[in-house]
């Protein structure tokens, strides 16, 4: 069978090192360390990138799945909100629209008090804008519309802070605020029955409560806080689309906000963390790859006589160069491929592994009142795997050039004279 001479000799050198003694044994040990370092670096980078992809996905699909992409407000009391909702929903850039009444309030149960954002919603339209229904009992919204008793839906984090369960009662308090005539409005207080408790696994569990539109309007005193929530075709274009929609409205008192003003810092932090961590892990891969340099330098020193004999038998400079490039390429290829396989396996199992550790030791590594979500998400993307494996192999290949050039410059006469 035809075998290219440089590749055949390079692979023989790589395979024979572990069976030799003295200095070659040290070379084999260093070569093994280089390969292990490259494997761990590649695997770690794939897992890290998958976790960052997971956080990015959870922000887009879970947090911004519950919260709107943009909201348009107006404090005027005579706005026809259903008509405005239909007008905005007809825009081709808008997927869905729903009216909302937002009130910043305090929830109290006994001596426990916690701040929260109360949203008054229309059960018929909120499910088109938000996926909050995925985390609720099917009858939860119907219970909000029950006129016999005011109901509220709480996030689990709020319920745990207050020590309250479904079916119990709490008080919602709207603090004093300035009125339109420059005076002060008295604080408003109303009692509510907890009809359901949702757990989205995000920071919204600690800040969001839902009531009916009429209850939120009464809690707010009928002034301010009303608006239209929008779900848009292009999330990243939310600010531009919102400004265009505001410009198309006839009145001048409309104003708005988009997700970048509420969760933009989180999105930027995720992207920055991904870039910084990726850079650090890439440096780890580079260090492991360039350990190949020390390995091959020692191989060149150990194989001086072999190189000299090959040169006297007619091996060209190019063939000697390719011999040691082949040996280093084998280390890089094995390290990058094995590391890639371990990284894929780690990315697919890291979420369940962390959840298992949390369950086994009774601890929680991520809490949604500190982090965006209360579990470690992961999303494997094959282009990332190809990029990391390719970068690891390419760095290893580049690291072989210097020692391979040194090997190709060995003078046969001098090498053989030194062996005597």
TrEMBL record:
Domain MacB-like periplasmic core: 31-232
Chief location: membrane
Transmembrane residue ranges: 26-52, 276-301, 321-342, 349-366, 386-405
Alphabetically ordered keywords of this record: Cell membrane, Lipoprotein, Membrane, Transmembrane, Transmembrane helix, Transport
Domain ABC3 transporter permease C-terminal: 279-412
Any one GO cellular component localisation term in the record: plasma membrane protein complex
GO BP annotations listed: lipoprotein localization to outer membrane; lipoprotein transport
Membrane-topology annotation of the record: Multi-pass membrane protein
Claim: Transmembrane helix is one of the keywords in the record: yes
Subcellular location: Cell membrane
Keyword Signal applies: no
NCBIfam families documented for this protein: lolCE
Family in the record: Belongs to the ABC-4 integral membrane protein family. LolC/E subfamily.
Protein name, UniProt field: Lipoprotein-releasing system permease protein
High-level lineage: Bacteria, Pseudomonadati, Pseudomonadota, Gammaproteobacteria, Cellvibrionales
């Amino acid at each position: 069978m035809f075998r290219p001479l440089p590749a055949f000799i390079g692979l023989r050198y790589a395979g024979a090192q572990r069976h030799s003694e003295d200095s070659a044994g040290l070379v084999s040990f260093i070569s093994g360390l280089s390969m292990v370092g490259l494997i761990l670096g590649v695997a770690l980078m794939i897992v890290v990138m998958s976790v960052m992809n997971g956080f990015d996905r959870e922000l887009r699909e879970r947090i911004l799945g519950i919260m709107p992409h943009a909201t348009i407000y107006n404090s005027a009391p005579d706005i026809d909100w259903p008509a405005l909702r239909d007008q905005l929903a007809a825009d081709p850039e808008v997927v869905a629209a729903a009216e909302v009444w937002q009130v910043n309030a305090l929830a109290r149960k006994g001596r426990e008090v916690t701040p929260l954002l109360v949203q008054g919603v229309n059960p018929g339209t909120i499910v088109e804008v938000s996926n909050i229904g995925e985390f609720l009992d099917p009858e939860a919204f119907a219970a909000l519309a029950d006129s016999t008793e005011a109901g509220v839906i709480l996030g689990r984090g709020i319920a745990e802070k207050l020590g309250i369960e479904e079916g119990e009662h709490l008080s919602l308090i709207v603090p004093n605020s300035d009125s339109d005539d420059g005076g002060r409005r008295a604080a408003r207080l109303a009692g509510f029955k907890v009809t359901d408790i949702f757990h989205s696994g995000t920071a919204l569990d600690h800040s969001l409560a839902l009531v009916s539109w009429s209850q939120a309007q009464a809690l707010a005193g009928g002034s301010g806080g009303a608006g239209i929530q929008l779900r848009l075709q292009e999330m990243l274009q939310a600010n531009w689309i919102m400004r265009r929609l505001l410009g198309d409205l006839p009145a001048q008192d409309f104003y708005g906000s988009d997700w970048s003003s509420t969760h933009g810092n989180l999105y930027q932090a995720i992207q920055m963390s991904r870039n910084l961590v990726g850079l650090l892990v890439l440096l780890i891969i580079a260090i492991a790859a360039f350990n190949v340099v020390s390995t091959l330098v020692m191989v060149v020193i150990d194989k001086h006589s072999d190189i000299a004999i090959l040169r006297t038998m007619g091996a060209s400079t190019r063939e000697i160069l390719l011999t040691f490039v082949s040996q280093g390429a084998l280390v890089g290829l094995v390290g990058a491929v094995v590391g890639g396989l371990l990284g894929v396996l780690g990315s697919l199992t890291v979420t369940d592994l962390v959840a298992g550790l949390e369950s086994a030791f009774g601890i929680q590594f991520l809490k949604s009142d500190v982090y965006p979500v209360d579990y470690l998400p992961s999303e494997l993307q094959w282009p990332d795997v190809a990029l990391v494996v390719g970068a690891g192999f390419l760095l290893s290949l580049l690291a072989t050039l210097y020692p391979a050039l040194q090997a190709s410059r060995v003078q046969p006469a001098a090498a053989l004279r030194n062996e005597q």
